[in-house]
Structures are given as C-alpha cells and as structure tokens.
Amino acid sequence: MKTLLKNARILTLVNDEIIEGDILITDNRITKIEKNIKDKADKVIDCEGNLLMPGFKNVHAHTAMIFARSYADDLPLHEWLFDKIFPLEEKFIDGDIYHLTKVGILEYLTSGITFAFDMYFHTEEIKQASEEMGFRTTILFTSLNDKVDFMEKKVLSNRGDNLVNYCLGIHAEYTTPIERIREIAALSHKIKAPVFTHVGETESEVQGCVERYGKTPLKLMIEEGLFDYGGGGFHCNYFTDEEIELAKKHNFNIITCPCSNLKLASGIAPIAKYQKAGLNIGIGTDGAASNNALDMFREMYLVSTLQKVTNKDAACMDGYDVLKMATLGGATALGLDECDVLAPGKLADIIMIDLKNPAMQPLNNIKKNIVYAGSKDIVKMTMINGKVLYYNKEFFVGEDVNEIYRKAQEVTDRLKG
Amino acid sequence: MKTLLKNARILTLVNDEIIEGDILITDNRITKIEKNIKDKADKVIDCEGNLLMPGFKNVHAHTAMIFARSYADDLPLHEWLFDKIFPLEEKFIDGDIYHLTKVGILEYLTSGITFAFDMYFHTEEIKQASEEMGFRTTILFTSLNDKVDFMEKKVLSNRGDNLVNYCLGIHAEYTTPIERIREIAALSHKIKAPVFTHVGETESEVQGCVERYGKTPLKLMIEEGLFDYGGGGFHCNYFTDEEIELAKKHNFNIITCPCSNLKLASGIAPIAKYQKAGLNIGIGTDGAASNNALDMFREMYLVSTLQKVTNKDAACMDGYDVLKMATLGGATALGLDECDVLAPGKLADIIMIDLKNPAMQPLNNIKKNIVYAGSKDIVKMTMINGKVLYYNKEFFVGEDVNEIYRKAQEVTDRLKG
Hints:
The structure is a homodimer.
Chain A: E1 2-11, E2 18-26, E3 29-34, E4 43-46, E5 51-54, E6 56-61, H1 77-89, H2 96-110, E7 113-118, H3 123-133, E8 136-141, H4 148-156, E9 164-172, H5 178-191, E10 195-199, H6 203-213, H7 217-223, E11 231-235, H8 241-249, E12 252-256, H9 258-263, H10 271-276, E13 281-283, H11 296-310, H12 319-334, E14 350-353, H13 366-373, E15 379-384, E16 387-391, E17 394-395, H14 401-416
Parallel strand pairs in A: 1-4, 1-5, 6-7, 7-8, 8-9, 9-10, 10-11, 11-12, 12-13
Antiparallel strand pairs in A: 1-2, 2-3, 5-14, 14-15, 15-16, 16-17
Helix pairs in contact in A: 2-3, 2-14, 11-12, 11-13, 12-13
C-alpha cells in the first residue's frame, strides 16, 4: 500500500527548515521525501500547500479518565480526588477501560497527537483499544498488583515499530511502599529499562516525603537507583536545585502538564529553569478528569506563556522550542526513535496543519504560530503508522464514532449511578 | 426569511437551564423558542441534539492586527512594540485595515464570537468590513485625530440593532494628554455616554502615571469624570483596593485579556477579587499581534484556571461563571441588551456547540465543559443577525475566503517589506 502526500510544506524536524515537496509512504513507513515524486500510489492526497510535520507525543496521559471529564470541576483537590474520582474508579468492570480509552483516542486524533504514554488500570484493555483503532501507545505499569516477571516479559517484548509497547513505573512516592520502589529499581537494573513516575506535582507531596524519609521525592528515588537507566517524571513543579542537578546527571526527563497543574491549582513548573539546566522536556495532557481537554495546542501555549509571565520576560521560552518539546522532546523521553522526525525509513506518524485556517493567516512565522495561535481546529489530518485515521474532521478508525460515544456514556452513567 | 433550528439543546442564559427545543428566527430576530415548532421555514437546520447558546462577546480587540500575528513573537515588550509593531503601523495606506479586518472576522466566526469591541485606525474601513461580512462590531474611538463633533454624531446614531455602533474612548493615560482626557470626559457628560480605555495593563504604566500625576491611572481618570456615565477598562491587571472600590461605585466594567497578558508578560489580573467585589467582568482577545489567536475558548480557560493557580485553590472561579462572563458579562459591559440572551424579540446571534466532538464526550456538565475542554473545534455554527455565517467549518460571508487571505497577505508583505 503506497500513499502519496503531494504539494506540501514539510517541517521534517531533521533540521529547522520548512521545505516544499511530497512524501511517499509505503505501508507504515516513509520511503521518500522529495519534490514532485512520480511514483504511482494507491492513494494520493493533495496537501494544497498545507504543512506536514511529525505528530505530537503526549507523554503523560490517563486516557480512559474521560469518564470524569467535567464530572467534578471546581472542587478542592482533596475532595475532587477522594470524594469524586476514587469512588468511581472502584466501580470499573471488565470492558470499561476499553470503551473509555477509545473516546480519548478520538480526541487525540483531533489534536494531532499520534502517541500517548498511557498510565491506567486494565492495561490489556488499553492495548486492545489502541491496536483496534490504529493508535500508538506506550503503557506505563504502575499498579502494585503487576508482577515483576509479567512486567519484565512485557518490557522485553518492546519493538520500535510496535503500536503498543510497555514501560516500568511507579504511581508516585506517596502511593508506593519503599519495598516496591526497590523492587522496580532492581527490575530496571536487571533489564536496563527506564522508569517513570509522578513526582513534584504538589507542595504537600514533597512535604510528606520529607517527613517520611527526610528528603525530597526525586532525591529519594534517585538514591534508590530508580532512574539509573533513565526515565522521568510527570509534572515536576517543585524540584530543588540539588534535584535539578541530579536529574541532569541521570538523563531524567521532565514531562510537564501545565493545564492540569493550573486547573488543580498544583503550581507552575519552572520549565525555563529546567531548559537552562539542559534537561530534556516533553509535554503531557494528563487525564481529562483534571484538564479537561486532551489537547497539545493548549499545553504548548501554556508551556511558553506561563514562563513568560512568571519570569516577567516576554522573550522567555521561544515558541519553536516548545513545538520541539511537544514532538522531539516527547520522542526523546520515550525513546521513540522510529517516529521522531520525518525521514525515509521512519514510521509514518504525520499530521497536516491547515494553513488556510484563519488563525494561521497571514503566513509570517509558521512554526511559532502553531504554538501561539494553533488549536485543534487547524488539524487537517492525523496519520499513524501510515494510515489516515482523521481527515477533514472525519474519523477513520474502523468503527462508528457515535457507537463509541454511546458505549462510553453507558459506562460513565453506570459509574456515576 | 424564516430559519428554523430544530432538535437542539438550548442554553438561553435567561436562566441557567439547558432545555430541549427548537428556535424560530424571522429575519434577524428570534421569534419563538419552543418544543416542536411547526411553522414553515425557508431554511431548516437539524441540530441533532447539539447545543445552541448566545454567541461570545469579544470585548477587547484590535481585529486588523492579524498582520503582525507571529511577526514578532518572543521579544521583550518594548522592543516588540517600538521596533516591530509601530514601524509597520506607520505604513498603512487606505484599504489595508479593510482587508486585514476581514481575516480577523473569519477567525472570530470559527471561535463562536458574534461581536467584537474593536479599537483601531481607519474606523470607516472596520465598519465596511463588518457590514459586508455581516459581523456585529462596536468601534471604539481612540485616535487623537477624531474630532469631538464627529464622535458625538456617530455615538448618537447608535441603535441596538445596528451591525456597527460606536463608543467613546481614549487609548490609555500614558498616550493621551490630560486635555484630551478632559475633552472626552466633557463629551461623555454631554451625551451621557460611557468611555473605555486601556488601564492597569503593566506595572510600568501605573508607575509612570503615579510619577506624572501623583496617583494611579484609574483613580486619575475617575477623578477627571471619565467614567461618570459608565464604561470600563481593558486588562486591569494592577488595581489598588481603593481603585476597586471606585470602580464599583462607577459601574466600571473589567475587561480581562489573559492570553495577551501572559504572552507579553504583563501580569495576571486578580479576577476572583474583582468578582468578589461585585464588578461586572467581560473577556477580550486583544489583537493577534500579542495573543496570537482570536479565540474565546483559550481566554475562558485561562480566566478560570489562572485564578485557581494564583489563589492556590482548585475551587476558585467557577467555570460556568466564566462562560457567563464571555457572553452576558461582555454584553452588559457594552450595553448589548438586544443580543445578550436567547429569547423571542432578541437579535439572532446564536452559536451551535458540537456535543459530538470527542472533547465534549461523555456528557457530564456541558456548561462547565465548554470552558474547560472547549476549543474552536467544537463550534459547529455561528449565526449573526439571523444569518448563518459559518457552518460545519465552511464560511458564508459573501466572498471567497482564499481571496480574503490573498489580499491580507499582500498587505502584510508590503508592510513588512
């Protein structure tokens, strides 16, 4: 199966230039990027000068949590979590996560997100939903019930061109006994695999850890050897200077989730400081329960502008740097070197940005304007693994969208009931 | 001409309920809101359960500034304004504002914005663009060149059902001689008309005013009688407690522009505090040069979530209150009592929210979720004055959109050249 994307502007992210040309895709991989490709293709899409670029990598997600979208807005954090979210999560039955995850994936497609680093219960249902819809996911193990040999087998089965892969993790220091932290650290050492976790999300989390262990959570986990083979943290709003230095030494990746952090009043991560320290930075949406949207455009806008306002400097945090965090930064954090940039041999995870959307007009600095004026509205196509899953606001995921909604609503109503 | 919008959920904003029913529009006004309207209509639109609500009121705009969108991102405020924006604005020739304004209006339509309070040069060109496209605008006079009798005549010609009306204003204290402030105050008294201005946008603006006059800008202008017949201020990031009290006494309207304030590192307005003081609050996008998008969804999200994070309280600033600021709050500020809510007799400025967009699924709290997960992507229809100007991502503005883009690009390239 050959697909030809013609007459495009292309930001390959191999370098910083926008070139003009065509992209030929054979099955699930890019085979050619050139001007005026003459190959016969089974499917030809005229891009009409619109921009092709690598899809966004959403590197922190709880996709199935769309059931709680706007179910418990505007509540204090503790009440939101303990009185609203946890009681509903206790009611899950088999199949729920499968149906809910699908709605989240539909939303990812509308935002040009071609990959999610997903952390939730019933991982086999996440896998099934992702594979059936053609979506690329790495599943993070964080349940205390996951057995070490099961996780070892899953992580060792990873291949760059799988739609679904696995990663070691813990939920967070404050929810994980020290024995489990050590167990995961030992497995990470044994199979040389990175580990990810929530860390430094709230001030009270950090204080609690200091009370328990006499040290801040990142320092504790680094000293326990959890990140000796890399990995990273979600949120990272509260790191000491010592932790920043340790993070740098361990190639610890920062995953920032500005929308969730604002909505839950957790704080604002000092991303400009992390960038200056040379840390790699990726961006995540977190779950819809706390965001409420699964939208990389809103996240990108905030990664930049929150640094400007908190540093009182409009020149702080270059827009194009943020575009790279949402693509390359996430890919680097997760080791996605088969779908990081657009080049022959790479997996075809490609999005088309509609430059004829009024928010993209006139054409001045296209790359920065995607960050500063972009929204889901400018996404014209989302292709994953060589397949067009979303085009001109229509979904091609092998199933009627209304049926997906109906089932997710049914699950949601039962959980709330 | 009768248009029937059938099978809708309807948030009239007459009260807080979402009802089910149809809306009948005769020419430019709503004539009936009921279940199962049987009237024959020239045009019938099946809303398929999607939500109809009043359009958003963008109550601070410099619409034509789209020429500078992403032309000068990531620069310090002073350099951005004096080295980049002002030199281009000096090059305007007749017709430029007309062509540029049209692109801004297209973008408003994509964001469900049915009204703009526009402040820019060449006001007759803003009027022409708005009327030709069918967009509702109130033009704010702020040029020092506008003669008092000209402004008086224009403001006295205002009618609630005009597409284009006028309002008195000054640009800001720091750009306006005290004699002009007094002249506008006198005219406001003579014709009993409100006055609007930029105020309290940056700390340096406030300091400068204190140095010049020994008092803060809002206090100065209130003491000069500028707001004795109402009006309001754009940005309002830095008001003293004394100013908040004075504002309340004068029915002074707060117009907040969070995106622009973040991107230019101006600050974060204490909206929760203003709300507590009982001030009316509207929301504006400001111009694309400093935002860069003309998008009410991004503004609404930030009006709420920035208050949560700065007040360290996830319960601060209710999402539905913010939805009302973006509609009723703006309408109240501008005296738009003919298009504030959906009811028989009101002008038909109506938008349709696509509840089948994945970001709106499942249905939990629809009103709050528009604020927390909405984006331009969920706007299915924008109707102004009874005419559908935008439907299913297509524009109906009496002119080819690509031609509008071509002319705006031509103007932009000449300005930059």
